């Protein structure tokens, strides 16, 4: 298997976690006692923990290694501002695609970074693929619930659309591998820009949605999501 084939398969697998999460949410919608309230909030918080691990273990360390401290800070700040403006715009439209936009807003730059990381060598690409899988499943779950509750789309159409969006992963990874890997500063800027957006989305959308009074499952889910990312980081670094 060639390296590019391996990269495309990894990015497709990461993308396939989105419709998998949507199918899980659909099952929960048909059989609401399948998961229950506590486990539903656990899944939401798990995605937040996985996202934070991607920021802390891959995107920020890789991004800051390619840029000066001042430019790193400016790129990170720009990401936060842009995601704030996007979120404000969607809120004013009363749109039902907020979680979907959030999912793609971190999936696309991470897939690009995945391709570029493999082109540059090292273990960051494999770890990033693992973290993308961990976060895309609960994000697919959340986005399906939002769309099914606030739009006229049928469950089948939503799952089918998410399956099509999974193909964005290989396309983005190929772009990073062939076109952007030689531009270290640009890749660093993209990683930091995406990092700020991910943190904004975690605290604006995921953390409030995962809150459950008198239950600790959401907090356990967030810790578990980060823990799996940390274990993956140590295993890959050790190998």
TrEMBL record:
* Spans traversing the lipid bilayer: 40-60, 67-86, 111-137, 158-180, 186-203, 215-236
What keywords are annotated for this sequence in UniProt? Answer: Membrane, Transmembrane, Transmembrane helix
Q: What is this protein's record name?
A: Divalent cation transporter
Has keyword Endoplasmic reticulum? Answer: no
Membrane found in the keyword field: yes
